[in-house]
Amino acid sequence: MDRYAVIGQPIAHSRSPAIHAQFARQTDQVLSYEAIEIAPDALPARLQALHAAGYRGLNVTLPHKVAVMALCETVSGRAQRAGAVNTLIRTDQGWHGDNTDGEGFIRDLQRLGFGVAGRRVLVLGAGGAVRGILEPLLAAAPAELVVSNRNPWKPEALAEAFKPLGTIVPRTHLSLKGDRYDLVVNATAAGHSGRMAALPGPLLARGGDCYDLSYGAAFAPFRAWSEAQGAARIADGLGMLVGQAAAAFEAWRGVVPDRLDAVIARLRE
Ligand code: ATR
To answer: What b/e readout covers 113-131, taking b as 16+ CB neighbours within 10 angstroms?
Structure first.
C-alpha cells in the first residue's frame, strides 16, 4: 500500500490524517497516512529513512517547514518564494519540496465566494504565513494589496521580494487610519495569545469580507473584531487547511478531492 505521513513536533493533534483518510474514501484511493513525530535535530536522518522505507509523500508542519527546504533534492518556485515547504513528493533521487498553502488559501476564498479581483485587500501581519499567500493573492488581481504590520520593515522587505510578481503596498497598522478595504485577511499570530492586533478605527468597506488564516480558539479575537466592523461574511482558516491538503493529495495521486465542504463539516463536528 502507498504510504504517506505528516511530520512535525508536536504532531498528536494534527488533523491531516483525518483529512487525507476522507479524501482517500471520497476518491476510492487505497493508501495509508500516518502522523510521525520528528525532533528538529533528527530531521535529516529521518527524512532519508522515510525515503528509503518507500514513503510516497509527506506533509510538513511546525517546526520543520523552513528547515526541510535545505534537505530537498529540488524545490518548486512557489515554495522558494514562500520560503517554506509543506509538501514533499517522492522522486527516485530524494524529495521534491512544494508549498500548497497559498493554493489552499485561494481555493478556500473561491469556495466561500470571497472575491479578490478588483477589490482592495488588506493583509494583517508580515511573517512566514503571509509569505505563503502573497503569490496567489497577486495573481488574483486585487485593485490594491496592502500588507500591514506593527513595524514597517517586514512589509517593506516583502514588497521588495515580491516586486517581480506585482505591487504590494507596505504599511504599518497605525498608518491605516481612515482607509477602507473590501477583504481583510488576518495573518498575525496575535490570536494564538488571545489578542487582536491593535488597529486604528474602522477599516472595512460596506459589504467587506474578513478571513483568518487560523482556526479554533485562535480565531476568536479576529472574529469579534470582524463582527464589530460589520463584516458581510467572516471565515476561519479551517477551509485553507483542507485546501492545502487537497492540493497535496492531487500532487501525489493525480486525483482532485472535490467535496471539501463535507470534509470541513466533519472537522467542525
Ligand atoms: P507565522 O508563521 O504565523 O506568520 P511569524 O513569522 O512569527 O509567524 O509572524 C507573526 C506575525 O504576527 C508578525 O507579523 C507579527 O508582527 P511583528 O512582526 O510586529 O512581530 C504578528 N504578531 C504577533 N503577535 C502580534 C500581536 N500581539 N499584535 C500584532 N501583531 C502580532
So the answer is: ebebeebbbbbbbbebbbb
